[in-house]
Design brief:
Number of strands: 0
Radius of gyration: 12 Å
Mean pLDDT: 89
Helix content: 40-55%
Number of helices: 5
Distance between the termini: 27 Å
Largest sheet: none
Amino acid sequence: KCTPVLRENIRRARLNCGLSQESAAERAGLAAQHYQDIEAGRREGLRLITVEKIATALDVEIWRLFREGEIPEPERKRGKTGPRIKR
């Protein structure tokens, strides 16, 4: 399975880009459900090429996705909605 650190860093990188899961999947050339399964930890045997596609789509160096603390937590904006998501 995808490690918790990798999953969390993918989620953080996506939110820092202001992207929805669907938009991130499209940029990476993945099916939206596949991408959602990766972030949720439901994907067995994640391939390195898939992680590379996601890193490129999120404009982050691939090694950063594997290290804890490399991707900052997205800033929370004041108000109820949090960061804006681009579709």
